[in-house]
Amino acid sequence: MNKISIAFDANIIGYAEATPRESDTDDMEMLKRSSTELLKDLQELVQSTQGLRLVISETAYDEISDGNAERAKSCIKLTQDMDILEDVQEIKNLAGLFMDEGVFRTKAGNDAMILASAVFYGMDYLITWNMKDLANKLNMQDMVRIILQQGYEVPRLCTAKQCSNYHLALIKHELREHQIQDKGMLYNIGTMETTKPKYRLLNTDDWDNMDKKEKQRLIDAIESSEVMIESRRWRAKKDEELHNDPEKYWKNREALRKKWKAQGVKFAPIPPTPPWVKTLLKMHKEKLAAREVAKKKIEG
Hints:
By secondary structure, this protein is of the alpha/beta class. Helices cover 61% and strands 7% of the residues.
């Protein structure tokens, strides 16, 4: 049976872990509640059905594992049903291509890694609250173009709210249909009576139906939240480490990965890379190398 695969950005875990406060605005309450409820609904599906796969990229897992020990412990607990997608070389190359093509801002290298991870491992969904870089319609056209050019499938990028409102019912339907097929039943799933879904639709307007001021208000709420401020701090730190000493950065990541594996953290199997993808990524790497040589000649 083909599995439905869903990857989570670190901010989804961060909002789900964050304690609700009386001082929360309506937007902040929605961010925390929708993230919490979506994770709960999907984890219940994992326990009660077959065919659903929840994952988190190594980059995102590194983020939620860092910082305050108590908070990190709570975040890791929320990912106990998730496999980790290891950051192999193909992901680094694909992320580099996104950056080289200007899809992401200079400071958004880790977001490029998270998207590249979801693409390389063939995720159906990537759920995030990052509306500046990932769930950004202005970036979508370039994302799709590059992903298809490299021979990959395009994951569906959405927020937790969008997933709950529009995709969760479809996910449940597909899982139910798979189970019926597995049991060898030949009747049409569409003719069956279905029970009321366990999930609760959020009483919020869809992003596409918001006016410009409402959209900006939500983006401002996300960007000014503790979750996103901490995320930007962590990502800026990692970007600086990578820039200052790339070799040391990746050695530290390798050591951290070995530590996680020794602790029993489950990593997803690494899929084979199609030959045409290897060729395209090799061409891109050669292009970057030639550009670096030309740059040094000019500077010299």
